[in-house]
Automatic annotation (TrEMBL):
Entries under CDD domains matching the protein: PBP2_CrgA_like
InterPro entries: LysR-type_TF_proteobact-type, LysR_HTH_N, LysR_subst-bd, WH-like_DNA-bd_sf, WH_DNA-bd_sf
Domain of life of the organism encoding this protein: Bacteria
Organism: Methylorubrum salsuginis
Keyword Lyase: no
Pfam (any one): LysR_substrate
Domain HTH lysR-type residues, every copy: 5-62
Similarity comment: Belongs to the LysR transcriptional regulatory family.
Biological process (GO), any one: DNA-templated transcription
Statement: the UniProt record of this protein carries the keyword Amino-acid biosynthesis: no
Full protein name: Transcriptional regulator, LysR family
GO MF: DNA-binding transcription factor activity; sequence-specific DNA binding
Keywords: DNA-binding, Transcription, Transcription regulation
Amino acid sequence: MPHPQLLRDMALFVEVARRKSFSQAAAALGMPISSLSRRITLFESAVGLRLLDRTTRKLALTSYGEAYLAQVSRLVDEAQRTFDDMMAVAKGPSGFLKIAAPPDFWVLRHLSGVITEFSSQHEHIHVHVDLKPAPVDLVGDNYDLAVAIEEPRETSLIVRKVAEVENGLFGAPSYFDERGEPTTPLDLESHQVIVPSQGTNATWSLTRDGETVAITVGGPISCNSPSLARRFAVAGQGITTANVINVDSDVSNGRLRRVLPDWTLPATPVYFVTTSRLLPAKSRSFIDFATKRLATVLATASREGRRSCSGPARTRVIERALSS
């Protein structure tokens, strides 16, 4: 039978190794840095190998540490999951669930409702949400999971696609009154576009009935924020790409108009990202719940947003233009 302290030291080592920081690991574990450092030193002595290289500026795993981490991580995760499952049987999923999510409008409007419903059904889980732009450091910032609209580059992360958000092309009526409205994708090349990344131009790919057209667009303004791009578009600065559900109220109120509605842009995927497949009960219960709810909510919102782009509000805008 292994000594109880051996199992605890294994868990302490995994925490430090994953975070590559004694201070972050100590904060997550709720123990003094000096105590954690001493336990790891004693653990290395017991193993007989140096597992961590420490300097004043950084901490790195040795080759022995890398190999040992790969072996014991799953054991520690399975032990934690087993404990959480036992607790869940006794009183249901519980604990502090820390989630990172992008500061997009659809998150504020729709994910908030999903979390509210989940919280009302799981009284023993405290949910904390941080609105943070990508990339998110799940381990370093101690997140249980992240909601992402871009697939992370780290291959070690576990990524689950849960939904898609439809995108379209939008501009202000004042801009179209001045510059005219594009009727084909190629027309966009002569229009002023709010470029979604740093630079003066970008390539957009539009699809209709199996036909795909790639065009180069450009304009004097670029930004990486969908919310700011929307504001520039409302101000008449050009055409922007936007999630349909992010601008449905602008379209309904006549501040924005969708153009080329028969042509589709690549949809924005929505992912749940975790550091392991072996999740505690609190994380599994949220992912199971939110995957079903969020997919339905976003699909419904996209349909409603699509209708608002071609409904009475757009008709009224066209009628006003014709009568002026």
